[in-house]
Design brief:
The protein is an alpha+beta fold. The protein folds into two domains: 13-48 and 137-155, Alpha-Beta Plaits; 60-125. It has helices at residues 22-34, 61-85, 91-119, 144-155, and strands at 13-19, 42-58, 127-143. It has a three-stranded antiparallel β-sheet with strand order 1-3-2. The radius of gyration is 26 Å and the shape is elongated. The two termini are 35 Å apart.
Length: 158
């Protein structure tokens, strides 16, 4: 960001190589770095993006309760522990006890919210999944003033 709040102007970039995997593009940048090229002028850009939703299993009421209970229990334990820190006479016991109460309360409340959320779906989404974005190819691009130098280094012409 520039001082005016607008994104800073980025110099034009030129693609110097294209790869089928991120690891190959990464190796190209690593080769440039090994040859003391100023890699702060390099970027790896994923092209031809696709969203992939991998189904990880069936979602029923017990799983919905578990998915709600675990993060809420951790949050409840943390909040209980923090509140326990403000007890001046015996902070360790108070912190541990309040963290335990927070864990239990958070787990119960989270399980209820998880089950309610699943019930409100009315069977429309009875599965769990993980969404990923994948690129089909990766381009190594270099700021225009440095592109010729990068190409020469990669071709072995210093």
């Amino acid at each position: 960001m520039s001082p005016t709040g607008r994104p800073a102007a980025r110099p034009a970039r030129r693609a110097i190589s294209s790869h089928d995997s991120y690891a190959e593009a990464e190796r190209t940048v690593d080769r440039l770095a090994d040859m003391d090229f100023p890699v702060e002028h390099v970027a790896i850009i994923g092209r031809d993006l696709a969203t992939v939703e991998q189904v990880t299993g069936k979602l029923d009421y017990p799983r919905a309760a578990w998915r709600g209970a675990v993060p809420a229990a951790a949050t409840g334990a943390l909040i209980g522990w923090v509140f326990g820190l403000f007890h001046w006479l015996d902070p360790l016991v108070a912190s541990v006890l309040l963290a335990l109460y927070g864990l239990v309360f958070g787990a119960v409340l989270g399980a209820i919210v998880g089950v309610l959320g699943h019930a409100l779906q009315h069977g429309r989404r009875d599965f769990s999944s993980v969404v990923m974005t994948e690129a089909q190819r990766f381009e190594v691009v270099v700021d225009e003033p440095f592109a010729d130098q990068a190409i020469r280094l990669l071709e072995g012409r210093n």
